[in-house]
Structure formats: C-alpha cells, structure tokens
Write a structure and sequence with these properties.
Blueprint (H helix, E strand, L loop, with lengths): L1 E12 L6 E12 L5 E7 L2 E3 L9 E2 L6 E2 L2 E8 L58
Length: 135
C-alpha cells in the first residue's frame, strides 16, 4: 500500500569540477504485506536508485563524476480524496476525459531553473572567445 507520494528536488555539487545542478524525483513510500516500509524513486518516469546513496548517485553533467545528492525542497502529493466534501470531479467518459492531457509536453526532471555557476572550474583557465567568421 502506498503511504506517501512526494516530489523531491535533489541538489548535487560535484567535488571534482564544482558544478552544481538539481533534479526532481518522484518518491513513493510503500508498506508491504509484512509491514516493512520501502521507498521508490523515479526520474522522468524511469525507476532509479535513491539519489541519496552511492548506488544512485547522479553523474555530473560537466565531468561525469558521480555525486550523492541532498534534498533541497519537497512537495507532498496529497492522497486521493475520501471525504465527500473534498473538491473533485467525476470522470464520466474515460477515453474522452481531458484528452489534451495525453498530448501535453512531458515535464522533465531538470526543467526548472538550474543554479548559477560562478565561472569556470578552479582547475580550468577561462576560454578565449570563439573567432568570428570572416566576411
């Protein structure tokens, strides 16, 4: 049984090149028939290991090294309403109910603004501007 649904924004900071980034993960807490609690993560709909463990550490988009994340923000997804006075709409035609939702653009896990980078990594010299083509 699902006991909690949430979206967690996870921050990463690369100790190799000092790049910083963040990614949103969907998190489910689940209790099995024996009463044990489990935590499931997914990113863009794909099941992944916990980003808080070395096994699920994300690769740095700049240098590829892997770093364990830390929670930056969290939003609980409320469970389905049970009370009769909770706002809700009955779905009368399954296939025809809000058909535009099927064509909606996927919301990517990294589609939010990323942290500003302070400049080139400490071990890298600034790059000269690219030459302009001759006219």
């Amino acid at each position: 049984m699902i006991t909690e649904l949430a979206v967690e924004r996870v921050a990463f900071a690369c100790g190799g090149c000092w790049n910083e980034w963040s990614t949103d993960y969907d998190v489910q807490h689940w209790r099995d028939a024996e009463g044990r609690q489990w935590e499931y993560f997914s990113c863009d709909g794909v099941p992944v290991a916990s980003p808080y463990t070395p096994r699920g550490a994300a690769p740095c988009p700049r240098c590829g090294r892997r770093w364990v994340g830390r929670v930056l923000a969290r939003r609980i997804v409320p469970p389905p309403p049970g009370e009769t006075d909770t706002p809700r709409e009955e779905i009368l035609s399954g296939a025809g109910h809000r058909p535009e939702r099927h064509g909606a653009r996927p919301l990517g896990a990294s589609a939010h603004p990323q942290p500003d980078q302070p400049g080139p990594p400490l071990h890298e010299a600034p790059r000269p501007p690219a030459p302009r083509p001759a006219r």
